[in-house]
Amino acid sequence: QVQLVESGGGLVQPGGSLRLSCIASGISIRIYTMAWYRQAPGKQREWVASIDRLGRTMYDDSVKGRFTISRDNAENTVYLQMNSLKPEDTAIYYCNTYLSGSGNYWGQGTQVTVSS
Questions:
Q1: SS3 sequence, the chain?
Q2: Which long-range contacts (CB under 8 A, 24 or more apart) does 36-39 make?
Q3: Tens of pLDDT along 63-92?
Q4: pLDDT tens track for 4-60
């Protein structure tokens, strides 16, 4: 049973930082691509960043240079370090992985609110 559990969201002022965590169980993240998505109110869920099994990272242009995705294989945890946060980063952030033959798995999400 694959489970992804996010944490680390909260309320932060513009320009601030947060680090999100995603603890995985039922899979070993070292062999899968892991990703973060977000969904703002009234908008569709959108991809934010990914890290593959070789450690290669990719980012949406809207977060490039501000967000960093990383993983700790020993802890089976994926992180999203978010710096220089903007009000438009406000969203529910979801951890994701895709398993061939099983499809997409999602966590329950963690709310990030950027507001003064």
A1: CCEEEEECCEEECCCCCEEEEEEEECCCHHHCCEEEEEECCCCCCEEEEEECCCCCEEECCCCCCCEEEEEECCCCEEEEEECCCCHHHCEEEEEEEEECCCEEEECCCEEEEECC
A2: 36/69, 36/78, 36/80, 36/93, 36/94, 36/95, 36/96, 37/93, 37/94, 37/96, 38/89, 38/91, 38/92, 38/93, 38/94, 38/112, 39/91, 39/92, 39/94, 39/109
A3: 999 999 999 999 999 999 999 999 999 999
A4: 999 999 999 999 999 999 999 999 999 999 999 999 999 999 999 999 999 999 999
